[in-house]
Design brief:
- Its EC number is 1.13.11.93.
- This is 2-oxoadipate dioxygenase/decarboxylase.
- GO terms for molecular function: dioxygenase activity.
- The chain is of the alpha+beta class.
- The chain contains 18 helices and eleven strands.
- It has a single domain, classed as Uncharacterised protein PF07063, DUF1338 (2,3-Dihydroxybiphenyl 1,2-Dioxygenase, domain 1), CATH 3.10.180.
- It is 48% helix and 14% strand.
- Helix 1 runs parallel beside helix 8, helix 4 crosses helix 7 and helix 4 crosses helix 17.
- The longest helix has 22 residues.
- It is globular.
- Bound molecules: 2-oxoadipic acid and nickel (II) ion.
Length: 454
């Protein structure tokens, strides 16, 4: 057998495609959504042929085609630590810390994703991964019961544990091992219609918080949605009902702009699925849903602060559940956020990639950094937005809530506890801003190096 190891990017690409196949079979509406997104993107690109810079067209289109994120909810620290090792096999690292307790959801989260530019282009597959915070459940009997159930389950197959260890020892997996890894790893994410608990226990958990029931009652952390990336989320939101899919009322995140920033998202409601409980009682559980997203410019800390400030102000005075009105209201509030590339760049609100125009030569005797602005103005240096690869806690809370239903949640609103999360994870999470800054700096260094050669 060929023991040569293959690239982690290939394993991630295989895994994300296998996951998408599995989810299409489990949740047929997701297949429909993929179709709508594909058609909308094709249509958008034919009307806006300059969406991607010419020299990036090929790789950007490939990326768009395979791009999606998923989400899971874990129950224990040790599940999270093993999940980190599992994702590491595919070149995915934990980026960012998200506190959702402030929004009444008793979890904190990170996003596992590839971090280098090259890996992102091959397949930017990400998984938003939440850890249940049992300490935020105020009923001590229920808390203990949940803890016992979670401690007794093993969400990983013995073989996937072996393959994770093998990948660490060999510093990678062979082609055949990678295929086996993908099918073994996938088992952790699949749906189980037979619960781990009795119907009464399920109802007790549900009564407390739907999310707690979802995490504790099952054999594994079923993938709860997969999200394709669209170039025109307003259009997808508009046409979803024609395909029998009812979207949530409003699109989360920033309003429609000339230069899209961060992330806009919408979802459709969870399916109600038949469950068999340990006492042979039958019941229903709603957990799995669909979502789409549109991604834009990654913001600097200054840009993000402005975004957060405008979002807070806009949300406080937003009274509408109607998407058109909501968008109008947000567009008004966001008028204060510059909406052309040059202003965003000059005011250091976002991260950009700098490249030499195809075939252009820079004057050899010039101090390029000092003349950057004028070279951009002359069209010799091209500036393109670096895309935001992460998530937004307020939007995530909106997505959680729209799928958990509007029942009362008996959870004390906690506070962020990043260090507890990192202790559970077994490492620190990566600061997302540093990744964007690095991509920007690399593109500038390359530009300067090219000009030195010419
Ligand atoms: C995760 C919700 C967050 C997003 O896109 O913001 C998320 C969940 O419901 O488990 O996926
Ligand atoms: Ni999502």
């Amino acid at each position: 057998m060929d023991k040569q190891t293959i690239s982690q990017d290939i394993i991630r690409d295989r895994f994300s495609k296998a996951m998408s196949q599995m989810y299409q079979q489990e949740v047929p509406q997701y297949g429909t959504l993929l179709q709508i997104v594909k058609e909308t993107n094709t249509d958008y690109l034919s009307k806006h042929p300059d969406t991607f810079a010419e020299h990036q067209q090929g790789s950007e289109l490939n990326r768009l085609d395979v791009e999606r994120h998923g989400a899971i909810r874990l129950g224990t620290a040790s599940e999270l630590a093993t999940m980190k090792d599992l994702f590491a096999v595919m070149g995915m690292s934990p980026v960012g810390y998200y506190d959702l307790s402030a929004a009444g959801v008793p979890v904190h989260s990170t996003a596992f994703r590839p971090i280098t530019e090259q890996a992102l282009l091959i397949n930017p597959f990400r998984v938003f991964t939440s850890l249940l915070r049992l300490e935020l459940i105020d009923n001590s009997d229920l808390r203990e019961k949940a803890r016992k159930i979670l401690e007794a389950r093993d969400i990983f197959s013995p073989r996937v544990r072996e393959l994770i260890a093998l990948s660490e020892q060999q510093n990678g997996l062979s082609d055949g091992q990678a295929d086996e890894f993908v099918s073994e790893a996938l088992k952790t994410f699949r749906w189980h219609s037979d619960a781990l608990v009795s119907l009464d226990s399920y109802n007790a958990l549900l009564e407390h918080h739907r999310l707690i029931a979802d995490v504790v009652s099952f054999k594994g952390p079923h993938i709860n949605h997969l999200t394709p990336r669209t170039l025109d989320i307003d259009q997808v939101q508009r046409i979803m009902p024609q395909f029998g899919i009812t979207p949530k009322e409003v699109i989360e995140g920033p309003p429609l702009r000339h230069v899209p920033i961060l992330l806009r998202q919408t979802s459709f409601k969870a399916l109600s699925e038949r469950i068999t409980f340990t006492d042979s009682e039958e019941g229903k559980h709603t957990a799995r849903f669909g979502e789409i997203e549109q991604r834009g410019l990654a913001l600097t800390p200054e840009g993000r602060a402005l975004y957060d400030q405008l979002l807070l102000r806009a949300s406080a005075s937003d009274t509408s559940n109607n998407n058109d009105q909501h968008q109008q209201h947000f567009a008004h509030a966001f008028a204060a956020f510059p909406d052309d590339i040059e202003s965003l760049r000059q005011q250091k609100l976002g991260y950009f990639r700098y490249t030499l125009k195809n075939g252009a030569k820079l004057p050899a005797d010039q101090n390029i950094p000092a003349h950057l602005d004028s070279l951009i103005k002359q069209g010799l240096v091209l500036v393109t937005p670096i895309i935001y690869e992460d998530f937004l806690p307020v939007s995530a809370a909106g997505i959680f809530q729209s799928n958990l239903g509007s029942e009362k949640n008996h959870v004390s609103s906690g506070n962020p506890n990043r260090s507890a999360f990192e202790t559970a994870l077994g490492r620190e999470v990566i600061d997302e801003f540093s990744l964007y800054a690095e991509i920007e700096a690399t593109s500038l260094n390359q530009l300067f190096a090219e000009s030195a050669q010419s």
